[in-house]
Amino acid sequence: HGRPLCMDGVPSNPGGAPGPVIITLAGLRMAGLDVVAFDAGLRVQPDAPITRVADRWGDSIATGRAVPHAADLFARGLEHGARLAGLSGALVLAESVPGGTTTALSLLCGLGYDAWDKVSSSMPGNAHAQKSAVVRSALAAAGLDDAARQFSGLGVAAAVGDPMQPFVAGLALAALPRVPVLLAGGSQMAAVLALMVRLATEHGLPFDPEAIGIATTRWVANDPTADLAGLVAQVADVPVFASDLDFGRSQYRSLRRYEDFLVKEGVGAGAAAITAALLTAAGQDTLLTAIEAVYREIYGAAVE
Prior knowledge:
Blueprint: H1 21-31, E1 38-39, E2 51-52, H2 70-85, E3 91-93, H3 100-110, H4 128-142, H5 153-160, H6 164-175, E4 181-184, H7 187-203, E5 212-217, H8 218-221, H9 228-235, E6 240-243, H10 253-256, H11 269-280, H12 284-299
Parallel strand pairs: 1-2, 3-4, 4-5, 5-6
């Protein structure tokens, strides 16, 4: 729509950088991609076309029962993934989850991966100590810190995950036998990939690592406080792509803040930029010009 319809402005980082949706919108327009939006648990309904797949939102992971309806979300994902795969030659699956790198950490650790101090953040410092404390409390509340207790993949997601994770895992697993899938994001999509691998084994579903990849931004790929490549390597042998967007030459100071590792990624920004570049042969300068045009459209900003 080119502007927010149910709030006054685009969500932005407290440090002054605009939210990554400006990158996503520019990429979508350049690539001419069709968009389908799903509501997997919103408190506030958007004033835009959306498909609801849940009538409740997730609880705090600290309860140890964050997503009791995880199995239903997974089933809905399988249903819609099969349908979408019949409409396109490929799927790019993105997310927007508040606190999503913390729930990514909890899901990865709950599934048995060493993700401590490896997930990214929208802030340059990355609150690893705070995230780890929350996740350790959540794992203890769920009983996932007891090695003798066995959980299924959906059991882990139900205990310490968020609603996006089982739904997107279902979308991707249902689509994979038919079309290639690009998981759009960083730490959160590493967690989705880990859940997919577990669920494919448990449910006897095909999983072809050559038909799936993760796409993000260079700000996540080069994040000195995280290790996306290392996380993915623990899970499966799938490629991780990073857009080479560089806002250092932007005429807008708030966009240049991305180079200070503010925001980094979100709403499929990296994948949108990569897809636009691949489909249009656009380079960095062309992409930056398109993103600045969206920035002006939304903010009406003069050169800073």
